[in-house]
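User: ok so my PI wants both of these folded by tonight, can you help

Assistant: No problem, let's get them done. Here's the first:
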Amino acid sequence: MSEDISLTDAVKLTAGISLTRAVKDVAGCRDWFFDEVLDAQNGATQGAVTWRCLFLRCARLAAFAVLTFTFLNATSTSTILDAQRGSLAAAPNGVALVIGNSAYQHTPRLDNPKNDAADMSAALKKLGFQVIEGFDLDKVAFDAMVRDFGTALKATEVGLFFYAGHGMQVSGHNYLVPVDAKLTTVSALDIEMVRLELVLQTMERETKTNLLFFDACRNNPLAYTLARVMGARSLQIGRGLAAVESGAGTLISFSTQPGNVALDGTGRNSPFTGALVRQLGTSNEDLNAILIAVRNDVMRQTDRQQVPWEHSALTRRFYFDPAVQAADPTPATQLKLSEGPEAWSLTKDAATFAILDAFVARDHEGDAGWIAPSAPLR
């Protein structure tokens, strides 16, 4: 999904042979074509003319292969359409784990997380994600779902995790709170909770592109319960969630900035998830632009009390909707084919208008500076 289809692969798909073989066959047949026609016509002039006609047909085949590559590269969800846009990753083949915990057993119920997860799940399914969803998960179910998620990620290139519910930070580590957590002892922290870092490690171990969204910075009564148990060490418990570092290819988005708490909202959704779902349903922009729009929406809704924040180590622009590629204004003929110079080096010695025309037609508006025939054209 994030890799180009190569010119070699395109030719293999259309002709059943490698690009190098195709080019060598065309260039290597030059003498054979000429000799056969010369013998048949018994005249050098007629032979040269007919040979050129045959070679022009070969050039048309070469041009067809180039056009086929252009078509495949323009319609494939893994293409790079514009060198200035940078590398492109699109969402199909993505697997998402979406969890919403509302019905907490030992602290007041949260109204929106279950709705947030349900609406996020529906939005991702429309965008082509395979979605694993869970609602009101206890610790055992939470752990099992993360394991299933890790297994599913082995067959994909994009992993997405969305969590809405209670979360907390202790000693700089972030924890997600299952609905059966009590936190009446210090040891319960690692027994009853799910460490965010473990989810992140699971994803980064399996996939190239990882997107994590946390609407989990709500004011958490369980933090006060744990603080009483920890006594003097209660200062290790921070507000909201802590900042998170990640590896390359990962983006982590929080409903508010580190150390702050987010609002649950008075409608069906929290301000953050509501804004995110709206953007996923309407925007054709890349993920960075979507998150800017979400941030502005949430700040407007909360009178700037809540400012969504993200940490990004993505190595390419990410688009949820691969159909955005069809609207890209960049002409396909301007695509830079990395194999162009190599292919030209195999054909330049043929020194014919046919081969030159095929290559120039491929890149007539792009950079064809590597075309430099080594012999006079005939």
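One down. Here's the second:
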Amino acid sequence: MKRLPALDVLRGIAILMVLIHHYVPEQMTIPLLWSGVDMFFVLSGFLISGILLDNVGAVNYFSAFYLRRAARILPLYWIVLLIFGALLVINPELLGASFQRHLPFWSYITFTQNFAYSFRGFWRDPWLDVTWSLALEEQFYVFLSLAVRFLKAKWLAALSIGLILLAPILRFYSEPLAGYILPLHRADSLMLGVLIAVLWRWQAAKDFLIRNHKVFLYALMPFFAGVAYFAVIGTGFGEPLVHFVLAFFYADLLLLAILRPADKKNFLFDNKILEWLGLRSYGIYLLHKPFRLMFIPLLRQYSISLEPWVNMALVTIVLFIVAEISYRLIEKPIMGLGHHIKYKKPAEEPLV
């Protein structure tokens, strides 16, 4: 499946939600903006399972997938970890609470920090705590690559439905932090994306979705009403039902994005600013909290500005500039190298 700019737009919305959630003063916080991560999960489930389904017969299925994913995830992630390690020695004050509260380094390296945070029961690691979602994604990659390889599409769809229904039950019996950051507890968002990818590759289901595309536009209203309800009552992350409703709301947006007629302009899905943000969302996501921790104290120290809104605007501008540099000089070139690793189709048996 070729790249759809509309999906980059959804990524842009997701990262904008996360950025506002972490950058706006607490007294001005808009409810549920933390759920930008939920949208990332739905998109990831759809896109990653699509890649795997389209290449399931490749002889280098596992190695090509993992190497290409490593080229996308690891370079900038390792740079962030190296900078963190250097600041621990050189200037730990720039790490904020992470100086005292960071996890053992092996947990970041092995992508198990989500389990480590859950085990100790709190975050308080502002430099690196956003990496819990990367850990969950990596765990999802391993699970999904095995599931796609060894299950027929109908059983993958059945597994997806089962895990979607299991997730809110697990959250009901868990603490909110565990309900937010453990993989099975977040399976509703991820596996809804997988289910859509499976249906999209089943021609009868795809035709049905295309014929009834307006249904998903109308469905936005009840889903949005559910989201609004949780926003009004102040539901926090990790609660049993809120992520379930959010997952269906974001899955509906995903369906609208892939079903939209290519020849018709759309004020949302053709938004170039959101598309730009979406393409640079990985760098923005990894760097936005470290930048806030490092630059806000410097701005105050040198009396450049004492107004919180001005401070955050300045930090955001610097963040976007660095994210652009990261995308052009680090992420995109290394992704290009990763794309040179092609999925190799099995050789055809010679005719006897």
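The chain is about 70% helix and 0% strand. The chain has a mean pLDDT of 93. Good luck tonight!
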